[in-house]
Amino acid sequence: xxxxxxxxxxxxxxxxxxxxxxxEVVGTDYDEGLVATLNAGRTTFKEDGLDxxxxxxxTKGVRFTTExxxxxxxxxxxxxxxxxxxxxxDPAFVVSACRSVLDVAPVGAVLVIESTxxxxxxxxxxxxxxxxxxxQDVSLAHAPERIIPGNMVFELLxxxxxxxxxDPAIGKRVAELxxxxxxxxxxxxxxxxxxxxxxxxxxxxxxxxxxSNELARICRVGGMDVAEVVRIANKHPRVNILQPxxxxxxxxxxxxxxxxxxxxxxxxRLTRMALETNASMPEYVLRRAFDVMQEKGIEDVSHVGVYGxxxxxxxxxxxxxxxxxxxxxxxxxxxxxxxxxxxxxIERDVxxxxxxxxxxxxxxxxxxxxxxxxSEVRGRPEAFHGRVLVDPRDVMGDGENVYKL
Length: 405
Ligand SMILES: NC(=O)c1ccc[n+]([C@@H]2O[C@H](COP(=O)([O-])OP(=O)(O)OC[C@H]3O[C@@H](n4cnc5c(N)ncnc54)[C@H](O)[C@@H]3O)[C@@H](O)[C@H]2O)c1
Hints:
Layout lengths: L1 E4 L5 H10 L4 E4 L3 H8 L10 H10 L3 E3 L7 E4 L15 H13 L5 E4 L7 H13 L5 E4 L9 H7 L2 E5 L2 H11 L7 E4 L1 H32 L3 H8 L22 H8 L5 H11 L1 H16 L7 E4 L14 H13 L5 E3 L11 E2 L2 H5 L4 E4 L17 E4 L10 E3 L1
Parallel strand pairs: 1-2, 1-4, 2-3, 4-5, 5-6, 7-8, 9-10, 9-12, 10-11, 12-13, 13-14
Antiparallel strand pairs: 6-7
Helix pairs in contact: 1-3, 4-5, 8-10, 8-11, 10-11, 12-13
Bound molecules: nicotinamide-adenine-dinucleotide.
């Protein structure tokens, strides 16, 4: 039996996928409301295919509880934020969850950390717990997750995976467990390599995006079209530049690379600069919108609105989103954030001046900053009924009233 600890964006689909493929699974989360929702037969976030997967897993007997279980394998999938000052990983959630596991785990259990962690986290923060509790009989493994919100169900099935373990036999056992549903290749290695590999993957993307954002700024000054430059450069067989945009959000790319900066401040200089470049983009978009206001002779910022609150298209996750970063920076500089905001994926109130229909949103607006290319507007400037569009993601096509990065 497998006990998945932490039923958020990663733990829940993982638990469901295993259960749907015949593994006996109990999901544990200390959030009573979340567990009650799942037990009432509802999923807790929107994701393509998740409801069907949920139904199948329930049929196969998956259970949800706030209690840690006695079983042979534990998968810990709890948050791993970074400390905003030291830039190092904050391992508190992982440590606390592992401690709770060790309280109940039977002899010979395997404790798999699935949360993304900085290299050496297991050795520094988890292994000492085994000594402290006298539980050297429990084996440790690390199996980081790579799936992307919006395509989680497909990617759980098809992505390649990494499993790190001290003992290759344990690595093989954990790889077999994931292979119950994963059709990709599962690479087995040691724990520290697995930790580093996961952080490196997200750092690679952060650096690539930062390069692209820098190109966008160079092209703006130099009077060149960055989209055209990137499109043509990518025809080179060994060039693959990602798209520039209004910043980077979500729980991974703006977070995980800081682990390297925190632990290796003298050496991770390129990484730090990339993160700072990406973090400067929401404010860059704001300045671009002010330039457009000037060009159009619009003086009142209440005529400017922001479409999109989530960190990417067609998900309901707002964590670290460029829009939130942009509104925060407005508050810092202007002591207030009067911009009206609308996101069809977010029903709850997240920011003060948020409305809940396109009609209310567009009422009285002259300029819309399209921060997210949700499918309902992507490639459809007419969805904004003639408003001037600031389009940092380049999703609205070309037009006289469309202003790109
Ligand atoms: N979200 C992503 O796209 C993504 C992708 C790949 C990897 N990751 C990594 O996966 C890990 C989990 O991320 P997430 O997005 O699922 O987080 P999340 O915040 O959506 O979910 C975490 C869940 O863990 C629960 N929890 C925390 N501490 C607990 C404890 N001690 N016992 C029981 N439950 C506990 C919380 O209540 C929450 O429901 C992180 O390390 C993240 O970096 C996330």
